Amino acid sequence: MDYAHPLRFGAHVVARTPQEAAERARLAEELGLDLVTVSGEETDTWTLLSWVAGRTGRIGLAPHLLDAAEWAPAVLGRAAAGLDLLAGGRLELGLGDGAGRWEASGVRPLPPEQAATALGEAIGIIRGVWGSDTRLPLRAEGEHYRIAGAERGPAPAHNIPVWTGGTRPDPAIAAGADGWLTTSGGLAADQAVIDEAAVRAGRDPREIRRLVTVAPRAAAPEWTGELVAMALEHGAGTFLVEDADEAALRRFAQEVVPAVRQAVAAARAARGVTEAAVPSSLVRAHRHPGIDYEAVPAHLTTIEPGDAGYARVRSTYMRGGSPGLVLRPGTPAEVADALAFARGQQVPLAVRSGGHGISGRSTNHGGIVIDVSRLNAIEVLDKETRRVRIGPGARWSDVAGALAPHGWALSSGDYGGVGVGGLATAGGVGWLVREHGLTLDRLRAVDLVLADGSLVRADDTRNAELFWAVRGAGGNFGIVTSFEFEVDEVGEVGFAQFVMDASDTAGFLRRWGAAIEAAPRDVSGQLIIGRPRPGQPVIAQVMLVVDADDAETVLDRLRPIAAVAPLLDHTIQILPYSAIMHVPPGGHDGQGDPVARSALADHLTADLAAAATRLIMSGETYFFQIRTVGGAVSDVPADATAYAGRSANFQLVAFGPSRARLDAIWDRMRPHFSGIYLNFETDLRPERLDDAFPGETLRRLRELKRRYDPANVFRDNFNITP
Amino acid sequence: MPDYGHDLLFGSFITPANAAPERVLDLAQVSEDADLDLVTFQDHPYQPAFLDTWTLLSYVAARTERIRLSGNVINLPLRPPAVLARAAASLDLLSGGRFELGLGAGGFWDAIEAMGGRRLSPGQGVDALSEAIDVIRGIWDAGNKERFRLDGTYYQVDGAKRGPAPAHDVGIWLGAYKPRMLRLIGAKADGWLPSLPYFTSVDQFAEGNAIIDAAAAEAGRPPAAVRRLANISGRFGQGGDQLLSGPPEQWAEQLAALTLEYGVSGYILMNDDPAVLELFGQEVAPATRELVAAERSRRR
Ligand SMILES: Cc1cc2nc3c(=O)[nH]c(=O)nc-3n(C[C@H](O)[C@H](O)[C@H](O)COP(=O)(O)OP(=O)(O)OC[C@H]3O[C@@H](n4cnc5c(N)ncnc54)[C@H](O)[C@@H]3O)c2cc1C
């Protein structure tokens, strides 16, 4: 019986002295082996394993039968996930039933039958801690362990294979063990036992990888022959050379491993057997109907609902999601492959870069997400012209950090966690907007994958119409795989945070608007007003950036704005632009579906201020924000890019709890608006297209949509129907 | 006015967040590069946003050369003492004697119980910690050829093999505030590690010291057998009259005073900003050492 697993070769290292074990593990890595397993004798196995993880960089790692009871299984589950995250997804978990417990901790081991049950319970708990398909706390009432509502997480970096050994496999295999460890002597007899246990648990016996420890032998050819037979006749998938000295380890890695690989590959080819690991039925059980998982091109990185990393990718910053498959291409060609696959499936498609979409629904339920966050390189192409190439998956925090050493910055948004892809294809209203324009105004070229899978470049001369459309409606036309920007010289800037009494709300808005319009272009910023609290004054948070590094200019610019209402609190700092944008990396765990309305306004007129005040006082918005635009943005003609709202000095957004009630108020405010910035809009009514793309702009976009995406593949963000 | 005469230690206290493990590792490296003596991590095994502290300590130990490491503090209720003892000795051996064992009785009992741990009252927690110290020292006593046995109220060890012995005398430092814990420190532990922000006044050092010193005397130990450390927080910037809020020189004066008047000889800064850790290691630590050395030689 050959289960056709791709073969893996490793070394089981036994620590007589801990230093020696660590050195042997390093040697195994140097020799190119796939896996090193360690057991401690006197040395604590988990400590040794974590140390070895820190001293190696590539090789897979496993404890060679850790007693799951030594530390509480829930703690071990969390520790294993943590080590997998630290070590970049290299961990496997070899668990034992505690037969050695007495030596180690002075706690008597359980009788074998009970020990097997306890191990099964422990595996269930460990997998439950990793569990990503639910937010519910973990509960387990076993004979041996009781977990009373522990929080789950973190999810490990990859699906950590769990393997164990012994003669009572049923509880462990039912709980999700993926591998079985045996000896070369026991292999033949054990296979049937494991196969039957797998079948009893409703699993495919091929899912269970068979790991075999083999003693070092002097003669390489005989050694090779033995291993080949074990692979082809008895289903062995992983060979672990047992406690080998340096010479034996070298002989194994350099002579035996290549010979076994070659012989097994030849025999499999002759028998017409294709190598493949059968995914665990515990993973497959979470698959969604409508997606042909078996047809996903093998070279693509995928995360499906049963996979470890799913919790980190299912949702976005603003939205809860439950996609059936997340594809994570690492090159433009892989983006095209992912797209081709997705187009063949009859499920929704979402495109994601930084996952901060509001209009852009970059997750879904039951569909496919193409997540380009791995395309996150930031390279300087030409110092002279400050030309920079940035991948869509970079976050603006990373961009600011990478440009700072050059004394440069790119006007982006106000929050460093936002991704490049969604922002630069639609607008980009940030801390430098009045001085340097929208992010897309600094864009000089893009590379993108079109709906038909072709990879094209667009700039002012090549595919100029497409380049026009990408700057404002990019999400409708393809998946951008890189952006080329001309960035600006920006050093330290003044950053002010004011807390203002906005009780005279309409007057405050009007005066603030007038002060902004009167300010030189080196001032950009925003105000935020939350839901008023009964009996308390309306409070506005005002944040401003002054692109100047001397205190005098900064204060000069701020004084007139600070004077528009009573100042309750303020801080003013001079600091690098990158410090304002700094946000540490982290995953998203959004829930629900945001309700937000967006608009552009030329001026904060008395009428608009009054209408906005009514909105604020209605309590129907918990977050009302006005950002500055105008300045350099208005230097660009309205037909130069698909982003057309060039006359506006202000961009407004309101988030509310109720779509119907917010719409009712916002719709009435429409006469005061001069368009919308689509990135903050969640209204799906078709009139919004006319607001964002007035007249000729929409006509041109529809025509281009018919040319570039006639089947309307890209429709998860402000869809321009062809 | 006790100054127990210990060499000064300066350390960092880094949030072990698992959202970006490389950032945690970077901060550990920054601590070593800033010439800090110690890098420490809190241990809350029930907290899903954190890396497992034991694993992290071992991993960081493997990636650093010089800096010493400690949990701040290790959660005893979820880390059985015999396993912990062997793990601690192993880490000390692997790291060439760089490990110290900051240990706590545990506090968040709902969360501990949810993870499969045993709920204890605060008083029981102290007694369990006392037993645990006996277990740990018993396991470390590798020279003793008899198997280790302890039939305690909280821990039963039914003849465990002893060893390994750690590479150096690993200090057992307890996070503590209340008299019962402080007496335990005087009787059995090697260090007292409270967090200064939990104090209402620095005089609590004096009160704590008195209890520890009395308990130590009763156990026949000199007061200097117990190092006094403190987790501290603060900010660098313009001077004010608050503790640890000002330029590095002002920090140094204030910390030197804590050493000379209250006997504190270990300062662990709770901060995740690399620039702040650098200032602490490069400026505050040498300036404090200098002030303390000058005053100690004057007093001699
Ligand atoms: C906290 C927060 C603060 C914000 N601040 C600002 C701000 O100051 N200024 C501002 O202008 N905007 C701001 N925004 C809005 C932001 O620009 C948009 O939400 C943007 O879509 C986010 O980009 P992303 O890559 O993170 O989003 P994702 O969710 O990854 O993508 C959103 C949409 O963009 C499209 N898209 C993503 N990647 C690509 C690609 N590679 N090629 C083509 N289309 C793509 C898709 O249609 C997708 O649905 C903010 C949003 C949030 C949540």
Summary keywords:
heterodimer; A: 722 residues; alpha/beta; TIM Barrel; Uridine Diphospho-n-acetylenolpyruvylglucosamine Reductase, domain 2; Uridine Diphospho-n-acetylenolpyruvylglucosamine Reductase, domain 3; 4 domains; seven-stranded antiparallel sheet; 24 helices; 21% strand; B: 300 residues; eight-stranded parallel β-barrel; two-stranded antiparallel ribbon; 43% helix; globular; binds flavin-adenine dinucleotide
Protein architecture, described:
The complex is a heterodimer of chains A (722) and B (300). In chain A, helix 8 (220-234) crosses helix 9 and helix 20 (606-618) packs antiparallel against helix 22 (659-669). Chain A has four domains: 8-271, TIM Barrel (Alpha-Beta Barrel); 283-371, Uridine Diphospho-n-acetylenolpyruvylglucosamine Reductase, domain 2 (2-Layer Sandwich), CATH 3.30.43; 395-489, Uridine Diphospho-n-acetylenolpyruvylglucosamine Reductase, domain 3 (2-Layer Sandwich), CATH 3.30.465.10; 492-704, Vanillyl-alcohol Oxidase, Chain A, domain 3, CATH 3.40.462. By secondary structure, chain A is an alpha/beta fold. By secondary structure, chain B is α/β, with parallel strands linked by helices. Chain B has one domain (9-299): Alpha-Beta Barrel (TIM Barrel), CATH 3.20.20.30. Chain B has helices spanning 21-33, 53-63, 81-94, 109-114, 122-140, 179-188, 203-218, 248-262, 274-299; strands at residues 9-13, 38-41, 68-71, 74-75, 99-104, 148-151, 156-160, 172-174, 191-192, 227-232, 235-236, 245-246, 264-270. In chain B, the strands form three sheets. An eight-stranded parallel barrel of chain B has the order 1-2-3-5-8-9-10-13, surrounded by six helices. The mean pLDDT of chain B is 96. Flavin-adenine dinucleotide binds at residues 316-318, 350-358, 360-362, 372, 392, 413-415, 418-419, 421-423, 425, 427-430, 474-475, 479-480, 679, 716-717 of chain A. Chain B: It comes from Nonomuraea jiangxiensis.
